[in-house]
Amino acid sequence: MFEKAEKFLNIYTLLIVNLAIIAVAELIGGGRYFYDTGLIHLIGIIFIGLAVYRIFTRYYFQDQFFKKFLKLSLTAFTILATTQIFEYLWIKFLPLKQGMAEAGVIGLYFASLLFLIAGLKFILGTAQQKPDINLRLPAIIMLLTVVFSIVFMAGGASIFEKNIEVFIYVYLVLVAILGIFAINTSLKIKKVLPLFKKFVNYLIPGIIFIVIASLFEFFKLLEFSFINEIQIAYLAHFAIYFALSFMFLGFGKLLNLGGIYEDIKEEFEKGNL
Questions:
Q1: Range from 33-37, 62-66, 68-72 carrying the lowest mean pLDDT
Q2: In this structure, are residues 161 and 97 in contact, taking their beta carbons and an 8 Å threshold?
Q3: Where are the domains of the chain?
Q4: pLDDT (average), residues 195-219
Q5: Alpha helices (H) in the chain, listed in sequence order
Q6: Is 173 helix (H, G, I), strand (E, B) or coil?
Q7: Sign of torsion over alpha carbons 89, 93, 94, 96
């Protein structure tokens, strides 16, 4: 059943699904229903679930070359899912001050990109026959980022509250820098490993949309006469939907690498792995 569904979920059907979600969200309940009920976050979790399913249930988890990369990618998607859950709790139950949740969300986007980059660097380092990438520093940075993000979302210490705009600007700049670095690393992989060309072609737009989502989270703090906070929240989530759609398609391209990976796929489908 899932395999048939996967064949159906191509770039065209996912585009239609995304546009349909946008239309329904904007039309039902005067454009507030998805926001007020938290459906906007549930849809994000469903998209993440699709991407995780595609990674976790496929043959390349049996291959040591992919295993570390996929674990890091799964961690990145888990953090994105956590973002959706925290945003829902923030709206429904947590009396957070303006800026606290936005800073936390952008910080978690930063952490997810950090893990994705670590995975990409591992693939690049392995392909170039360099020593295994040391992930201690990225892990420490990620841990601090998540801690700061949770502090923001929980209402934070006064030092964070007083300097919330500074922290948000810093987070936003860091996300942009990580986005550029992730794209640059992806392009290097595309050059060194031509088999990953189709994967990278979908991954790069996914990274760009994560950065765009971070930008919209920042826009929530600004007052615009032509657009309200709910519409900005929608735009941030629509960007995440598109990001995850591209990543879902990108990881699907790893199913057709050919060569030894095609042999591994055949053995996996026969139940021999």
A1: 62-66
A2: yes
A3: 2-270
A4: 88
A5: 2-8, 11-27, 33-37, 39-56, 64-92, 100-127, 136-153, 158-162, 164-192, 197-219, 229-253, 259-270
A6: helix
A7: positive
pLDDT at 59 over 60: no
The whole-model pTM stands at 0.80
Q: How many Cα atoms sit within 13 Å of 121 on the Cβ side?
A: 16
Q: How many residues make up the chain in this entry? A: 273
Cα–Cα nearest to 57, from 82, 81, 74: 74
Give the pLDDT of residue 226: 74
Tokens of 233: 């929240």
Q: What is the pLDDT, as a whole number, of residue 260? A: 45
Say what the pLDDT of residue 202 is: 93
Fold of 2-270: Rhopdopsin 7-helix transmembrane proteins (1.20.1070)
Do 85 and 71 touch, CB atoms closer than 8 A? Answer: no
Per-residue pLDDT of 77-122, as tens digits, reads: 888 877 887 777 766 676 656 666 777 777 778 888 888 888 888 8
CA quadruple 171, 177, 182, 187: dihedral, nearest 10: 160
C-alpha 213 chain-centroid distance: 10
Q: What whole-number distance in Å separates Cα of residue 106 and Cα of residue 177?
A: 13
